[in-house]
């Protein structure tokens, strides 16, 4: 951002702009970029919340916000990139953050642009943002985004802020109605998923937070937002953060029926391993190729007071087990198209070529697991994507390669069930 001084903006907007810029143009993960930008003692708790909302909200709704801006510009391609980013962020604020007065949004954006680019572009910004502010509720009406009579894919791409290739994939795979439900979920604020530990009574907690409760199943809760003493419950290990949809997917496979030991071969930070242990599955081993994720899981073990044998290994290679695992849990690397609400930056980074490479990795992991698995053993395969080629088709190909493979249970999140997040899960037994 050499031509623009973010110091010309209010602090929360500075932080959000820095995070968005690093994410979209420096290819950093949005959460990593935001964590770096938030690392300043000058930020109040309120400013941190606003910066986070602006960064995630704009990246989730990027195409719609940008369309609002470009609709009122003659030659948007000729304008500075960061100038357009500031306008897009301000447009998001005008359209989606109705607690902030429109005049305040216009003021910070115009003044910041004036300090960096001068009166001419400040005048342009003022005119555009005032036009957007005057639209009122129309900014949320689908017909406003159809004014130039776009084709179906272009409209859906624009209105739901989703790359064209993903829109086409979902239309072809699921049809118009389901595709629109999925697209709607992809731009919604994700629910806060909590998993109650053995020492926490889920009924008592659900009653305590009933005004925030979106869904509950067993020891799993989904909330609209955080609550006052959540940090204390997390610190004590009484509850854990975990996607509600992810918990439903794991539960649907009935882990207590799995042969043991269970090897979580792509454990990440250990959410599923911990959930298995809390449900009474034992023993559970966990491994991952990435040391940072293993370090995160070690922190989880300390926080919850649980012990799980951890080791570094690639899921595409066979560790020297003395006793083979009865079940191999494969939460495989995937395109992540089922959790775009939580990880919105991934839709702007993923390409069809990436998906092809991920599918090859998934196949290699499945083949290695199959070779490790003893007769009677089970593979539990889970993804957080909405792509049949990575889900049902990947398992169908495994069963075709190995005639002794039998699907035991299969699950896919229904459109409303996962609160905007979607998982695929299946268990396959080796006869």
From TrEMBL:
Active-site residues per Swiss-Prot or TrEMBL entry: 384
Residues that bind S-adenosyl-L-methionine: 288, 331
GO molecular function: RNA binding; RNA methyltransferase activity
Domain spans labelled SAM-dependent MTase RsmB/NOP-type: 159-431
InterPro entries, per the entry: MeTrfase_RsmB-F_NOP2_cat, MeTrfase_RsmB-F_NOP2_dom, NusB-like_sf, NusB_RsmB_TIM44, RCMT, SAM-dependent_MTases_sf
Pfam families: Methyltr_RsmB-F, NusB
Record-linked PROSITE patterns: SAM_MT_RSMB_NOP
Keywords annotated in UniProt: Methyltransferase, RNA-binding, S-adenosyl-L-methionine, Transferase
One Gene Ontology term from the biological process aspect of the record: RNA methylation
Record-stated family: Belongs to the class I-like SAM-binding methyltransferase superfamily. RsmB/NOP family.
Protein name: NusB/RsmB/TIM44
Organism of derivation: Desulfoplanes formicivorans
Lineage of producing organism: Bacteria, Pseudomonadati, Thermodesulfobacteriota, Desulfovibrionia, Desulfovibrionales
């Amino acid at each position: 951002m050499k031509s623009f001084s973010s110091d010309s903006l209010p602090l929360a907007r500075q932080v959000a702009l820095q995070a968005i810029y690093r994410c979209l143009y420096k290819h950093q993960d949005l959460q990593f970029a935001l964590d770096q930008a938030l690392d300043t003692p000058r930020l109040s708790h309120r400013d941190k919340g606003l910066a986070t909302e602006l960064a995630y909200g704009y990246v989730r709704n990027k195409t719609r916000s940008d369309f609002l801006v470009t609709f009122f510009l003659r030659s948007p391609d000729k304008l500075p990139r960061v100038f357009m980013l500031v306008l897009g962020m301000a447009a998001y604020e005008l359209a989606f953050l109705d607690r902030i007065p429109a005049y305040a949004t216009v003021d910070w954006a115009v003044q910041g642009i004036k300090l960096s680019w001068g009166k001419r572009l400040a005048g342009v910004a003022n005119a555009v943002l005032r036009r957007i502010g005057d639209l009122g509720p129309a900014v949320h009406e689908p017909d406003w985004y159809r004014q130039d009579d776009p084709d179906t894919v272009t409209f859906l791409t624009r209105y739901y802020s989703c790359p064209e290739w993903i829109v086409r994939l979902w239309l072809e795979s699921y049809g118009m109605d389901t595709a629109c439900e999925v697209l709607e979920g992809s731009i919604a604020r994700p629910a806060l998923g909590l998993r109650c530990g053995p020492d926490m009574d889920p009924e008592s907690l659900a009653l305590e937070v009933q005004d925030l409760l979106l869904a509950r199943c067993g020891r799993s809760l989904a909330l609209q937002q955080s609550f006052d003493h959540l940090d204390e419950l997390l610190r004590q290990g009484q509850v854990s953060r975990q996607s509600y949809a992810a918990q439903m997917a794991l539960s649907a496979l009935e882990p207590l029926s799995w042969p043991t030991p269970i090897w979580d071969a792509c454990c990440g930070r250990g959410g599923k391993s911990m959930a298995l242990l809390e449900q009474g599955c034992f023993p559970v081993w966990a491994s991952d190729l990435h040391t940072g994720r293993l370090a995160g899981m070690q922190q989880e073990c300390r926080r919850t007071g649980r012990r799980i044998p951890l080791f570094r290994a690639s899921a595409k290679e066979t560790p020297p087990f003395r006793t083979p695992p009865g079940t191999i849990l494969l939460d495989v690397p995937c395109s992540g198209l089922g959790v775009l609400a939580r990880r919105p930056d991934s839709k702007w980074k993923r390409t069809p070529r990436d998906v092809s490479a991920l599918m090859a990795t998934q196949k290699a992991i499945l083949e290695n697991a199959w070779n490790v698995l003893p007769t009677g053993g089970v593979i539990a395969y889970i993804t957080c994507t909405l792509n049949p080629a990575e889900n049902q088709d990947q398992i169908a190909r495994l069963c075709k390669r190995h005639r002794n493979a039998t699907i035991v249970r299969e699950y896919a999140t229904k459109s409303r069930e996962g609160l905007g997040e979607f998982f695929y899960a299946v268990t396959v037994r080796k006869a």
